[in-house]
Amino acid sequence: MVKSVPYLLNRAALAKCGAVLLFAALAAPAQAGLFDDEEARKQVAAERQRIDEVKKDLAAQQQAVDARINKVEEALKSQALLDLFTQIEALKLEMTKLRGQIEVLNNSVESTSKRQRDMYLDLDTRVRRFEQQGGPPPAAEAPAAPAAGTPPAAVPATGAAPATVTAINADSGAETRAYEAAQSQRRMGNYQGAIVAFQNFIKQYPKSNLAPRAQYWIGDSYFNLRDFKLAIGSQQTLLKTYPDSPTVPDSMLNIASSQIEMGESVTGKKNLEELIARFPISEAAEKAKRRITGLNAQGQAPSGAAAPSGKP
User: Fold this and answer.
1) Alpha helix (H) residue ranges in the chain
2) Cα separation of 253 and 191, whole Å?
């Protein structure tokens, strides 16, 4: 049976439409796969970026940890040096105590020498008098025999020198004992008692060779009591009253240390520099140099009482 032309045309159109539909059905999965690969690449790129950021964060944290470890190591080293410095200061304090005892002994020897010189001069004067008179040297007169029923009376010997020597000897011994008693109070940590004892010593023996040291220890005792204003005032009294004393460098060091403890680091550092300029070869100047180095390195003042460099 022969088909008509319109029929054939309809069949051809239907076939063409089927082919188009089939192609579209086959192409859809391919496009979907293409889109899936693109998303995957974006996700991979995003993950890589996150990984890079995490690596940067880890590197920054590692640097921070390293910095903290370095600070801890430096602190430990500083602590070891501080312990060593503390031990050295303790040894120096012990040496200072020994110097104090030596000074007391030297003062006693000096007083004894002075008494011997006075006795020699008195004896020489009496001998010269004898040589000029051509008679026997003056001697102590024997006491006259007391009358019956009269109690014996003491008759002084001729010449006043022995009595003078005895008085000098007694005064020197009392002076040494008074100074040593005040030092004992300070060594026991009774700083308030030491202040009173040193003040009494200065009132009783204002011309003593030990008076400048006594004034210094008054200021040092106030320093140990953390009354820095009175410590500075006491040391300024020493500088005014005994400007030529060998104790002046120690006094200046104590003033600067008190100012630093009060938070006046700039003024304290200036006084330390003045101490070094005025007394460059003193032991106090060496301590002042170390204090300045500590201030420059740490930016703060060292605490603790200032151990004197000289004799007690």
Assistant:
1) 5-133, 161-187, 191-204, 211-224, 228-241, 248-261, 265-278, 283-298
2) 19
Q: Is residue 234 part of a domain?
A: no
- What is the C-alpha separation between 142 and 146, in angstroms, rounded? 12
Write the CA distances from 208 to 107, 174, 179, 243, 281, integer angstroms: 10, 12, 10, 15, 26
Q: Which of 134, 125, 210 is nearest to 176 (CA)?
A: 210
**What is the residue range of 71's domain?**
24-85
Averaged over 164-180, what is the pLDDT? 69
Gyration radius of the chain's alpha carbons: 49
Task: Give a yes or no: residue 289 inside a domain.
Answer: no
Per-residue CA distances from 127 to 79, 116, 117 (Å): 71, 16, 15
Greater confidence, 106 or 131?
106
CA-CA distance, 238 to 285, in Å (whole number)?
18
Residue 240 is assigned to a structural domain of this protein: no
> Residue 135: which residues within 8 A CB-CB, separation 6 or more?
none
As a whole number of angstroms, the distance between CA 158 and CA 222 comes to 51
| pTM for this predicted structure | 0.47
Three-state secondary-structure class, residue 214: helix
Distance between CA atoms of 183 and 72, rounded to whole angstroms?
42
The string of pLDDT tens digits covering residues 217-269 is: 999 999 999 999 999 999 999 999 999 999 999 999 999 999 999 999 899 99
